[in-house]
Amino acid sequence: MEIIVQKFGGTSVANLECMQKVKEKVLKPLKEGKKVAIVLSAMAGETNRLIEMAKKWSKYPDPAEMDVLVSTGEQVSIALFTMLLKDAGIKARSLLGYQIPIRTDRDFGRARILDIDEEKLRNYFKNYDVLVVAGFQGCDCENRITTLGRGGSDTSAVALAAALKAKVCEIYTDVDGVYTTDPNICSSARRIDKIAYDEMLEMASMGAKVLQIRSVEFAKKYNVPILVRSTFKDGPGTLVTKEDPNMEAAMVSGIAYDKDQARVTLVDVYDRPGVAANIFEPIAAAGIVVDMIVQNPSRNGSTDMTFTVPRGNVEETVKILEKIKDKLGAKEILTDTNVSKVSVIGVGMRNHAGVAAIAFSALKNENINIMIISTSEIKISCLIEEKYTELAVRTLHEAFGLEKEE
Fold first, then answer.
1. 94-131 pLDDT, tens per residue?
2. Which fold has domain 3-174?
3. What values do phi and psi take at 403, rounded to 5?
4. Any residues with CB less than 8 A from the CB of 90 and at least 6 apart, and which?
5. What pLDDT score does 406 carry?
6. Would you call 122 exposed, middle or buried from its count of C-beta atoms within 10 A (0-12, 13-18, 19+)?
7. CB under 8 Å, gap of 24 or more: what pairs does 368-374 form?
8. For residue 209, what pLDDT is reported?
9. Known binding-site positions
10. In which element (H, E) is residue 22 found?
11. Which annotated residues bind substrate (predicted)?
12. CA of 5: how far to CAs of 206, 394, 402, in Å?
């Protein structure tokens, strides 16, 4: 019995017309004699509507009850879609997270999947050809509903594919694959046929919105190939899979950008052991993610420490730093929210010299100043003024020859 897993996002199930298109995608593997597990998101805009409703009812909504509330969006989607399938004569049933079950930890709002009952899941297929599963949700050890966080339906789908040992996890969205950069700001962007897990992880973490980062982490861990395709038009899509050691990778695969950035600088902190820990430990304890970090050369026993955080966390970060400012010897705390990050990504960078030189030269030629640089084995990121984001993306895209083939 061959089982395939398909996932459809909110825009794919936004209304009846969209769901009819989804049904056609399901019929194809059924005609080939395969069983299908489908993971659905809530209808477009529904999760946001439920969150806003909770804010009207409660000043401080309880996280566990929030999960009960927002998980209803997927429940509506799977029920309506299963009705469509049954009307077409297909043996189908809907399943909520706890009915499988998809076991998670108790971190409400951002739970992590611990286990999926593979045997029970396979037993459902003895009576049904299609299982329509609610994405984004699971349950804890007490069967309390949990949700996986924004984009969690991608993770649900990959986890199901891993449990069922599916050959591929097909993720359908409103775009026809992963592009070399955002086609909305760079018309020469092209679809990538195949991309390695590590490259996709970097692109997802750097702002690319096609796949949720935890789903790619899960796919890499369990070696689940992901095929990203469009719900609304046919095409080969993009295959996200393990790196092929027998093929020479392109130097650069894509350019990503992230405008959700803010720069924080502590001026004249003590330059001595333990200061960095004193700065970043309380920030981490508050659940704030620190990204890029740079420390200026010491002068008279003091230094400036600059780092970036998500824009929405600036005020909280400053409040934390104000409490320890005197202990650190800092003269002042500076912030800048008019910044963004652009990143050059590619596994081929491991074996090619001069990638940084090409990137920095291209930005220099457009008079774009680089405030902070961070690197990994397959990525170079630059913090720049936000107003230059689109220009920087187009410039780097051209500099590395990523345009559509003529």
1. 999 999 999 999 999 999 999 999 999 999 999 999 99
2. Carbamate kinase (3.40.1160)
3. -65, 165
4. 26, 30, 129, 130
5. 46
6. middle
7. 368/392, 368/395, 371/263, 371/306, 371/339, 372/263, 372/292, 372/293, 372/294, 372/306, 372/308, 373/292, 373/294, 374/291, 374/292, 374/293
8. 72
9. 7-10, 47, 74, 173-174, 179, 209-210
10. helix 16-31
11. 47, 74
12. 27, 36, 31
Q: Which residue has the tokens 């650190």?
A: 328
Exposure string of 260-269, with b = 16+ CB inside 10 Å and e = fewer, is: ebbbbbbbbb
In this structure, what token pair is assigned to residue 93? Answer: 């049933």
Residue 390 bridge partners (DSSP)? none
Structure tokens at 317: 């970060």
Coil vs helix vs strand at 256? strand
Report yes or no: 29 and 36 within 8 Å, Cβ to Cβ: yes
The residue length of the chain stands at 406
> Is 31 in a helix, a strand, or coil?
helix
Q: Are 255 and 188 in contact (CB under 8 A)?
A: no
* CA gap 106, 400 in Å, rounded: 45
- Which residues define the annotated binding site for ATP? 7-10, 173-174, 179, 209-210
> Which parts are annotated binding residues for substrate?
47, 74
Domain boundaries, the chain: 3-174, 255-399
Residue in the structure block whose two tokens are 């935890």: 214
pLDDT tens digits, one per residue of 123-167: 999 999 999 999 999 999 999 999 998 889 999 999 999 999 998
Q: What is the mean pLDDT of residues 249-253?
A: 82
Q: What is the CATH number of domain 255-399?
A: 3.30.2130.10
Distance CA 55, CA 263 (A): 29
pTM: 0.85
